[in-house]
Amino acid sequence: MSLLPYRDNVGAVLFGPAGLVLVARRADLPNAEGAAGGWQLPQGGMDAGEDPAVAVFRELEEEIGTAKAEILAEHPRWLTYDLPPELVGKALGGKYRGQRQKWFALRFTGSDSDIRLDRDPHPEFDAWRWAPLAELPALAVAFKRAIYEDLAREFARFAR
């Protein structure tokens, strides 16, 4: 077990048309069209002392170019994952063993044209789409799959 701490992080399950959720393809994995881990939910690190509900809107703005959303629910627990041993000391700046995440379900209040991955000079994502919530676990890398399974259960009521 690593002695490194967890990095505090927020994540967004952004519900759009017909109860589908926004997933985005990682720009560093452009050939991973159907591979687990190629597509993920918007998420990102929190600043020291930052309120998670504030951080989730900041992360949406940074990662997908818009924060046009309203919070539907906050996951009742912080969820954690550990990086696989080969990534510890390399991923997340080499400073963390994994992440401690606060997840939110949000309703998208904008239109598809508001989603602009090109607003960041170094975008994390290069494509996005609307996907069924139940598809989330199959999209996740193995070490994040349990979190995506939890999110699919916890926020299922918003997918109707």
UniProtKB/TrEMBL annotation:
A motif (Nudix box) lies at residues 44-65. One of its GO terms (molecular function) is guanosine-3',5'-bis(diphosphate) 3'-diphosphatase activity. Pfam families: NUDIX (PF00293). Its EC number is 3.6.1.-. SUPFAM superfamilies: Nudix (SSF55811). InterPro entries: NUDIX_hydrolase-like_dom_sf, NUDIX_hydrolase_CS, NUDIX_hydrolase_dom, RppH. Keywords: Hydrolase. Residues 5-153 form the Nudix hydrolase domain. One of its GO terms (biological process) is ribose phosphate metabolic process. Its cofactor is Mg(2+); a divalent metal cation. Accelerates the degradation of transcripts by removing pyrophosphate from the 5'-end of triphosphorylated RNA, leading to a more labile monophosphorylated state that can stimulate subsequent ribonuclease cleavage. NCBIfam families: PRK00714.1-5. HAMAP family: Nudix_RppH. Belongs to the Nudix hydrolase family. RppH subfamily. This is RNA pyrophosphohydrolase. It comes from Neoroseomonas alkaliterrae. The lineage of its organism: Bacteria, Pseudomonadati, Pseudomonadota, Alphaproteobacteria, Acetobacterales.
